[in-house]
């Protein structure tokens, strides 16, 4: 048997994982990693926490949990994997099955032959086509050296920072900078923060939280150019709405897959721009595999290609490729675009499709918005969460969950990820035997509560009105009744100042029903919408036909309570 | 149409839920709840936290999240549900469809007619057949008044407490008492704590944690009787191993379903002792439904009846019954015996079958034991967890997960609960698109890491030895090599003192292979078993055939490291 020569281009996440997996399966394979940089296997996702100072040294992001530095000697000694770092792969000759490389140290060129080639070339930060984008003080967050540069800029005394792009990396870095006393302004082209993650009515809550922490958020704002001081350092960010002073700028408007090598070699690219791979992560050349941030994935719900680079996906890709380049037959079915991130005291997460995503794909959906505590409301650590569930309007299939708040979010996202992967009806979430104890959840967990409301909507029992819809009716000056069924104390504490409001506490509704018109639309609200839904049913029981409750109640109402 | 007369016996969890759900579906139904006590809809699971003082007043356990007290007036005014509290349901006349009740206030008897009857009669604490069990100072934790009694005993100055039964309620109360300065002794008849929840090698870790918090744990110990002082209060607990002084005793050896009414009425009981119900939660009389702690459930994996009372299940039952007594057709498929609880700084959880459960049911299983951080190891809040995964040996189906430690546990249990419910192959857990960011998880979450190890075992790549097996070989004085592949600093910090140990750091293994015998069994270990598994593969690559790694490494090793 001849030795299997495996060559892997890219030494950060997918590449080393594929190499290590291949080694464990095939002790005799000849395995080489080619990496253009000098750092291997670093935890790129940890960079915001390094900037924040919660991770003290960059080395921590490069060590195994047992404290070993993952350098060339580590790969050679422990794993018998050759690493060629500071080496650029310039060209793939698919005919002769060689990679032409050049050492960035010595400029020496040579050829590395392969039987199986793995492209794990990652992605680079996208750069806006603005003049001045290369000024001193303007960073991307693509590499540990970028993080070190930002940290140095802070210690050098930068006081004002601009973050271009309010995606999740932007938000993470906003926290990292603001928590160190910098004045931070985020500039987002679209109308809400994290537009790829959250539907607008949830994004507003995140934006408010960022603002409450001193971050200025400019949405619907376009960067035009960057202006420098007389030493060539950035001084001002010029936007279509005005100028913002900054000595430190992070450009985080997304990433682009590194596909040059693949493209030059004639490998097929996908419609998203990433390298196209099949379910075995094989490119259009059966000897060449690709994974991590340079490929596109299949979205498990839409079945369509999607570009969604994630460290977790890169690791899974590495394992699958490691199997398949050593004779295995492992499939990678796809992703759900799951994300979670921390934004100051908020936890924010999404899995599957948002309502916006559904609109884009033409998928008919119904949604619910439910606020609730993350554990028993009487337990001292209980904190609120707002959850939005998105379900196929025709077949009831769970399509997506978004959640945010001070309370626990990741658990609910992961439960939804598991359920969605297996194509589960949202109503089946109601009866999942999830772990219950007061410090961890409520007897009916918020995700099950959301599923119950979906059930009520699908069966026609519950009729609701979204916050967006109510707001546009208020804005339009429509004639309807806003029925507030909270207790007097609650109303005093958080009044909804609007002249359509009629206040009847739920406990008095049965006796004061005659105060309400039967020939007008009635939108009922309370704090969380539980009582409002109860009120809808009470009124319907008495023959009212035009009653709906406000989805999510005041707890999820994003628009302020003065009109 | 005649009015649907619904009568519900039991006003705590399932009963009020069924009533509220029925009301929302059928505004015209006549709904009555009969409750022997004077408290309604209280959160029984919160009682340990009331005892601990984290929940200040009992009222908090009886209020809605919006702060309304769920009393008779609340049910009447808000929900138009009649509540007859302090009323005992004495007999069901199924022929005439009436419940004979007696007021515990006035002793007046009368009959309540029904079209649909719901039994939500709950459970009572089991009591050991020991003399003195009714002495002053001996409590069960069945009712808020019990919790108030315990809290009063503490404020009256009790200093020594005994908890009979180391189940999860026992552990929760141990924390509640010890954290207030009481000397706590737990007495457990079986050989490990929480034997229904954890396999022995995990239970030992929990026991150590309890002991580190000052709790004395006596396993394999049987209570014989309770002795009183001259005022009739408990003074000593007499066991088969000696006496323990106590002024406060909690008996928590489990609960028994309250089935007397059902049994007297000739309704079928199940083999577990709970009321037997079908998937619509209907008893053997189609007009009578039952749910909550008085019924048995179907276990979703074994398909067999199981008695596993839980507040979360009771709520689900209530909703299903509320549907079905108002013309619905909702099924409740069953449970997984999911539990989670807090024990001082440990989080502990289980879902599905343990290895012990599999043995009882004759299900062939393979297991893995993996320690790991609950989030990125470099993130400051990262804490360790130990997870055990149990998988069907023949078809790879995920059967169960147990986990414990200072790190997050409930999320992983809930993911497993979702996966198990839908009969998923453990290997499919590896590719779930779970939410990843450094504050919440590792790029390969511990549950996916466990699934990967299962994959390696099922495919024959990974060969391991359980801690129990290694211990018995050490105890038996077998001749084999224990290969420690940790780094020298780690060995110094936590040496494994055993004369079979050969120390070769993983990085040196390839060059020092000749130091190892090829004709002996080799058990490799490291801290977490990641490197030990790597070593197994390296040695096998060089022709060694008798190598296995220690499941879970030293991090999960429960037996001490001196021999």
Q: Work out the radius of gyration of chain A.
A: 27 Å
CATH topology of the largest domain in chain A: FAD/NAD(P)-binding domain
Count of separate DSSP helical elements of chain A: 15
> How many structural units, i.e. domains of chain A?
4
Gap from first CA to last CA of chain A: 79 Å
Topology (elements, then pairings):
The structure is a homodimer of 563-residue chains.
Chain A lengths: L4 E5 L4 H12 L4 E5 L12 H6 L19 H8 L2 E3 L2 E7 L4 E6 L5 E5 L2 E4 L3 E3 L12 E2 L4 H12 L4 E5 L3 H11 L4 E5 L12 H13 L3 E3 L4 E6 L5 E6 L2 E4 L2 E4 L3 E3 L2 H5 L23 E3 L6 E2 L6 E2 L4 H14 L14 E5 L2 E7 L2 H7 L3 E9 L10 E9 L5 E8 L4 H12 L24 H13 L5 E2 L1 H10 L4 E4 L3 H6 L7 E3 L2 H7 L9 E4 L4 H12 L5 E4 L13
Parallel strand pairs in A: 1-2, 1-7, 2-3, 7-18, 9-16, 10-11, 10-16, 11-12, 26-30, 27-28, 27-29, 29-30
Antiparallel strand pairs in A: 4-5, 5-6, 8-17, 13-14, 14-15, 19-20, 21-22, 22-25, 23-24, 24-25
Word description of this protein:
The structure is a homodimer of 563-residue chains. Chain A is α/β, with parallel strands linked by helices and 563 residues long. In chain A, helix 1 (14-25) runs parallel beside helix 8. In chain A, strand 24 and strand 25 (398-405) form a beta hairpin. The first copy, chain A, has a 5-stranded parallel sheet. A 5-stranded parallel sheet of chain A has the order 9-16-10-11-12. In chain A, strands 21-22-25-24-23 form a 5-stranded antiparallel sheet, with helices on both faces. Chain A is built from 15 helices and 30 strands. The first copy, chain A, is globular. Chain A folds into 4 domains: 5-122 and 256-324, 3-Layer(bba) Sandwich (FAD/NAD(P)-binding domain); 138-253, FAD/NAD(P)-binding domain (3-Layer(bba) Sandwich), CATH 3.50.50; 345-458, FAD/NAD(P)-binding domain; 464-556, Oxidized Rhodanese, domain 1 (3-Layer(aba) Sandwich), CATH 3.40.250. Chains A and B meet through helix 1, helix 3, helix 8, strand 21 and strand 22 of A and helix 1, helix 3, helix 8, strand 21 and strand 22 of B.
């Amino acid at each position: 048997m001849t030795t299997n020569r495996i060559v892997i281009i890219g030494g950060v996440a997918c590449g080393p994982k594929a190499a290590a997996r291949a080694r464990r399966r095939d002790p005799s394979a000849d395995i080489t990693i080619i990496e253009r940089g000098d750092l291997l296997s670093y935890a790129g996702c940890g960079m915001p926490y390094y900037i924040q100072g919660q991770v003290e040294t960059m080395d921590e992001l490069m060590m195994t949990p047992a404290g070993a530095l993952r350098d060339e000697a580590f790969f050679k000694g422990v794993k018998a994997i050759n690493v060629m770092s500071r080496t650029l792969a310039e060209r793939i000759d698919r005919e002769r099955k060689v990679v032409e490389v050049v050492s960035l140290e010595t400029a020496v060129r040579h050829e590395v032959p392969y039987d199986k080639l793995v492209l794990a070339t990652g992605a680079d930060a996208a750069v806006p086509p603005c003049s001045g984008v290369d000024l001193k003080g303007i960073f991307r967050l693509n590499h540990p050296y970028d993080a070190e540069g930002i940290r140095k800029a802070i210690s050098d005394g930068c006081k004002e920072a601009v973050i271009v792009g309010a995606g999740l990396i932007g938000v993470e870095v906003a926290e990292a900078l603001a928590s160190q006393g910098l004045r931070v302004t985020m500039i987002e082209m679209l109308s809400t923060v994290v537009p790829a993650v959250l539907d607008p009515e949830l994004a507003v809550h995140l934006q408010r939280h960022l603002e409450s922490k001193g971050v200025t958020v400019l949405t619907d704002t376009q960067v035009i150019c960057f202006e420098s001081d007389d030493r060539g350092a950035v001084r001002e960010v010029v936007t279509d709405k005005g100028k913002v002073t900054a000595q430190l700028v992070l450009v985080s408007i997304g990433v682009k897959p590194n596909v040059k090598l693949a493209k030059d070699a004639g490998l097929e690219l996908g419609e998203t721009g990433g390298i196209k791979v099949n379910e075995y992560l094989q490119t259009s050349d059966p000897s060449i595999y690709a994974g991590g941030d340079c490929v596109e994935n299949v979205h498990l719900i839409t079945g369509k290609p999607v570009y969604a680079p994630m460290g977790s996906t890169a690791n899974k890709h590495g394992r699958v490729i490691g199997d398949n380049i050593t004779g295995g037959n492992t499939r990678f079915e796809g992703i759900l675009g799951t994300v979670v991130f921390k934004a100051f005291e908020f936890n924010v997460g999404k899995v599957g499709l948002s309502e916006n995503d559904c609109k884009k794909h033409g998928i008919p959906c119904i949604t619910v918005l439910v606020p609730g505590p993350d554990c028993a409301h009487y337990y001292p650590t209980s904190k609120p969460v707002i959850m939005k569930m998105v379900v196929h309007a025709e077949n009831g299939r769970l399509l997506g969950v978004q959640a945010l708040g001070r309370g626990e979010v990741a658990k609910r996202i992961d439960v939804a990820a598991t359920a969605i992967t297996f194509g589960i009806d949202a109503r089946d979430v109601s009866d999942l035997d999830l772990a219950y104890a007061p410090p961890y959840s409520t007897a009916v967990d918020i995700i099950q509560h959301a599923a119950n409301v979906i059930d009520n909507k699908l069966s026609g029992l519950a009729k609701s009105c979204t916050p967006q819809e109510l707001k546009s009716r208020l804005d339009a000056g429509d004639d309807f009744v806003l029925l507030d069924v909270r207790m007097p104390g609650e109303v005093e504490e958080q009044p909804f100042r609007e002249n359509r409001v009629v206040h009847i506490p739920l406990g008095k509704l049965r006796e004061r029903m005659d105060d309400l018109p039967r020939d007008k639309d009635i939108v009922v609200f309370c704090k969380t919408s539980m009582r409002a839904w109860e009120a809808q049913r009470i009124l319907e029981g008495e023959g009212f036909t035009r009653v709906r409750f406000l989805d999510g109640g005041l707890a999820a109402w994003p628009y302020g309570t003065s009109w």
